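Need tokens for this chain, all 194 residues.
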Amino acid sequence: MCTFSYNNLVAETRKVIQQENIPKHWSKTRNETFDVHAICILFVLFHVEQKDYRKFAAWLAVSPALGLDLKSAPHWTAVEKAFKRLPPRMIRKLVQISGQCSDRTVSLDPTYYQLTNPSKGYCKRIRRDPRKDKLLKVSVVVGTISQLVLDVYVRAQERHGTRDVPKLVKSGCFQDKITVADKEFDSERFHQQI
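Here are the structure tokens for all 194 residues:
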């Protein structure tokens, strides 16, 4: 199981925010209820706690004990919308922080997501084949016991999964761990990279 301290997790997240030069506010008027730094910390805590948005917003009643500068716990819809505004590069860094744990075995799996979701009736009416729509390729590394995401790499192109491995290896998510992967990764090159 993972052993961690919430205070250390928040401190490490603040360190990454500083290194990445993340602005404190997205808007020029600074009229946001929660600044970007607080949203990044909430994002990491959200992934560690593995709760849905409603339960996570209720869990945030303990936020003063975590040292967050929150005047009140945010509504669950505010949390969901704020997370959607985070840039993909920052999301990857935050997921790496939230996934740090002592699992001895990790699992690597690529998957695809549709970028659009048109109805069958609409596609039939405009004579569009939804099977030919572009997909988003995602390679995910997960701890098998804790089920925490250690790293995620997103590409907007269809490509073989082994081409994403060098980016995943740089994060250190495979270091000193047993790696389980699909047959797609069964190559000597992959074994050497791991």
